[in-house]
């Protein structure tokens, strides 16, 4: 299943407008900086995060009120995508990734300095638009995400090629890397609808568990997919020492992987060897089972909330995320 097969009739018009607005929002005075930012959004992307924000906005609308979401909800969806894109620019520099979404990364097309500045610029733009929502609680919630990104990158940098960390450590890193933004954005959408604290917590946990599942599946795809499918080099996480769930589970069966990790995949065929070994274990299936657990938790939470047209669409996103492997 691809994201284009998920029927988003409920928010299609909003997503169309979002794509137009993103390019307007990243306008910069310096032509190179503008070109770098525009290059990112021209590449498209799945727009999973803003879709979730818009759907949570519709899900948490009081049934006694209008069913039209606020302009602030649409702006929050845009802010979420800008923050996500900014983090990708910096990730690509750190990981020295040559392509993203099937096109040259910013630092590959321009240079590292421009890429760092472009990422900083996008974070700054998101902060500006966030402040203009004029909702201090939402500002606090979303601002924490940028701190989480930084903490996640530092933690990841400290555990490169470290196979002694636990699955819990891996899940914590995945939260900082992906789930934090989705969870906070869901909570922010509920805040804008003036939902009670219980509902805010529920949608936050929905986003957290959905985000964890997304990252676990993303890490599996790094091993099982081709570069063409991924839009970036396959095996990049392994190469950079970012050890993921599939590898940790595979290590329980194949001790030969320790030798490859110890020498940091320094030989040209080490990554291919590691991928082959992992595929010949139950590592990938166990990682998928772990993602499935988080998907089931997120689905349970959604069923506890108001049931409306948005519910069906959110469950379709759940199905899309867990079925990205097929």
TrEMBL record:
Q: Provide the cofactor list for this protein.
A: Mg(2+)
Give a yes or no for keyword Magnesium in this entry: yes
Enumerate the GO terms in the molecular function aspect: metal ion binding; prenyltransferase activity
Q: Which residue windows are transmembrane per the record?
A: none
GO BP, sorted A to Z: isoprenoid biosynthetic process; quinone biosynthetic process
- List the Pfam families hit by this protein, alphabetically: polyprenyl_synt
Q: Which PROSITE patterns match?
A: POLYPRENYL_SYNTHASE_1, POLYPRENYL_SYNTHASE_2
Q: Which UniProt keywords apply?
A: Isoprene biosynthesis, Magnesium, Metal-binding, Plastid, Transferase
The UniProt entry, under NCBIfam families, shows: prenyl_cyano
Task: Please give the family membership noted in the entry.
Answer: Belongs to the FPP/GGPP synthase family.
Please state what the protein is called: Prenyl transferase
Q: Which organism is it from?
A: Campylaephora sungminbooi
Source taxonomy lineage? Eukaryota, Rhodophyta, Florideophyceae, Rhodymeniophycidae, Ceramiales
